[in-house]
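Problem statement: downstream parser choked on a complex file, so we are re-checking the raw output for the copper (II) ion run. The parser issue turned out to be on our end (a line-ending mismatch), but while we're here, posting the original submission so the record is complete.
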Amino acid sequence: MIPLLALGCGGEAAEVTGVAGPVLHGCTANGYVDRRAPTASRSVFYGGAADAGALSYAPACMVIAPGQTVRFDGLERGTFSVHPLVPGPVQGVDAGALPNNPIVRADDGRAAVEVRFDAAGVYPYHCEYHQPSMAGVIVVRP
Ligand SMILES: [Cu+2]
């Protein structure tokens, strides 16, 4: 019996959820988690926090609705000085025409930032030091 696992960002095992999104940053076409429900968690953990590997984001591939806020959170395990959060695709990846990405570069000692996504679109992000494997995508759609 083969478990329903696929290789996600950084070679970490990621759940296959059947939610569609672009193939980018290790995200597979149907490998996105749907966090559009009002009560869903919209935290992206990194740097060994919660479900994230030391050099990965979890969940790295997330679908949210316009107007919702994502919290990038290293909890007690990671900070942006170790894992600088950078908007946009990793080097060498052409993500096509990118709309304005509301993610703002964070490279200080904070562990968490919250980013509100108002417009539908595809918003890649990555860690400056650990790209290309440490990368993810937020897809915003109704
Ligand atoms: Cu990193």
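For whoever reads this later: The two ends are 36 Å apart (CA to CA).
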